[in-house]
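Subgroup meeting minutes
Present: P.N., E.W., G.H.
Scribe: E.W.

1. P.N. recapped why we're keeping a running log of single-chain structure predictions: easier to compare across weeks, and new members can see raw inputs and outputs side by side.
2. G.H. added today's entry (144 aa).
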Amino acid sequence: MSVNVPPYSNLQAAIVYDFGNTYINFRMLHYGKIYYFYYKIFDSMGNVAADGYIKHKFHDDTDDYNDITMFDPNWQLVTDDVPNLAPMYDVAVMYYVGQDEMCLTNNKGTAPLPSSVDVTDPVTGTVHTLEFTSDINGIYVYFD
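Output recorded in log:
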């Protein structure tokens, strides 16, 4: 996987990894989307301040596959078993018929995998947010 640009800071001073706009990366957005990743954040002393898994934002982090299929029947359940994340997170894989798109969501509302996590700086007490999301302009990982 490649990153289009080095991380940069936006006006809010957040670090942003931009994986490119949806037109250029259409196939990645639909067929090769990064559904989740393992993150590790270090403090200034090299100690791990936070680590864990985060998923690509899809609907609300509390929604499960039943909520999503009721909202839009074009989303179909592919599997409710993602062994790499179990037993810590219970997630399901969804497939959208009209757009050939797949995403992760919660399995029956249990042990949700977040798309956004707060990380507290152990020295200053400042709370930062790590978020994995996309919009019509691109796919992003923010660390604010």
